[in-house]
Batch of 2 targets.
Target 1
Amino acid sequence: MPTVRMTDRFVAAAKVGEAIRLGEFYDEVTSGLVLRVTRGAKSWSFFYTTPATGTRARVGLGHYPQTSLAAARARAIEAAELVENGEDPRAAFAARARSAATIAHLVESYLALHVRARKRRRGSKIERELRSASKIERRLRKNVLPVIGDVRLADLHRRDITRVTDALLRRGSPSEANHVFWDLRTMFRWAVKRGDLDHSPTGDMDKPGDVVTRDRVLTDHEIRALWNGLPEWLVGSRTCARAQCARILRLCLVTGQRLGEVAGMRRTELDLQRRLWRLPPERVKNNTAHSVPLSDLALTLIGEALDDAGADSELVFTGRDGKAISPILLAGLILGSRKPTKAYPAGRCPVKDWSAHDLRRTALTEMAGLGVAPIVLGHVANHRTTTRAGVTLGVYSQYTYDKEKREALDLWAERLRAIVSGSKAKIISMRPR
């Protein structure tokens, strides 16, 4: 390729023909400086002979227009001086970049090159993996960057990790502290493999928080209060339709399924004639397809939701904007309903310290109290640790317990109707006499 006396105008106008993938223009002014032009980008390089081996090599100096002609010439002159002094510019520039890079730079690289890219390659798991990727990004941006984002990688110390997790522990969020710690540990291990870090500062550190497993189960009085009061208590969002939010939470209690699975319910998952809700693997926490028999009470809630969503909506539960209702939004509404205000010193909701997952736990506990066998409960909850435990259940027995699941959920729905109405309806237990 030609050697030219480069100017800013020449660099801006430089291009290659359709038949040429890469064009290289050598600068007459600065020896070794090359403008490399492709159909989509322009970049600067410096070609030289390595002092150690005497072979030809190239080091990148930046992309145009972020790196101007003047800046590229200055970097090329610096690279030439390094060669004269017996140093390899590639090693010198890489060491300088590592020392100048910060946690913020590393986070952006990690998200772009690993988290999002890896999640896009997961095939059938893509929806669940993308949700996971968004959670990782949210945690890093919310909890890490504001605290240690400006810390240089060369100065990174274990105390910086502790600063991040201690802030979460002070907020009373040990579970979030553990998640962020594991996010950082994974990111640093990735950086070590790439060569961005020499070692991970989290190597021998323990997880920061001890998470206490919740065992909250709602009483009959609390169930009745929540069921009847939810639409009025869930306030505070412009996009949230209170009736739809209340139906989601009620359906969590009726079916014993997870909040995210219920909130994301789609028309294509429903077989209303067979009274079934079929969850595909990518919508389930353990990536295992799951079918949920629908009781009359569940069908009533779903029918009301479909009417509100409209015939054109793929989603069963939609907000005022026609979009899906986020589980995070629902969790925030629950917290808001318990928050004291001037008008409601004890909070709008009189039921204390409850969460959406407590509804699932309550449903499964009530079914157990009605005599539902543990193996059936495991299938209702889609817990593989129960349904596929050991060789017998995991390999030999392929029975799905669909009939037993339907009986259990119908029995619980009748019990729930009695609780909500305050009646003394008699529910016959599934326990053998």
Target 2
Amino acid sequence: MKLRLGVLVSGRGSNLQAIMDASAAGALDAEVEVVVSDKPDAPALRRIDEADPKIPGVVIERNAYPTAEAFDDAIADVLEKHGVELVVLAGFMRILGSGFVRRFQGRIVNIHPSLLPSFPGLHAQKQALLHGVKVSGCTVHLVDETLDGGSILAQAAVPVLPDDTEESLSERILKEEHALLVGVIRGIGAVKETGGPR
């Protein structure tokens, strides 16, 4: 049985594309069941139409709900309706509350463009450049109730070049993100198939 994914997006959706491409190529034993975006104009939603129009794209905007908790619940309801086993935050730019995290405890992964615990939060690549680090990278971690906290599942290092800008560093990290995220999802699927760690 393929691992059933729900992917949350806010922007370009290149990590979503990497997941869909790997799944279509048979390199990932997982299937995207639903994509949820908090932005109706997110380019990620167009990627679904081009890759596989059968994948539902659902827009859930924060301003349509009276509280953050109601917004979180609406997303969680959609994911549960589609039988999602693993929630993947792929450039989702909102912090999910403790109620959401509890509903999917241990089943939410996030990709972050730094070597956590360094540089959590927004503009991680800019933070890395301002601190003058020689190595940055990306992290896939389980999501808990802290900002970019939770157990680290995998990391990939990317050297910071002397002439790097925020944009150039971001693009090089992004290439590593694609492989890292797909690899982690593949590993989670393999553990599921064997009935969990022994």
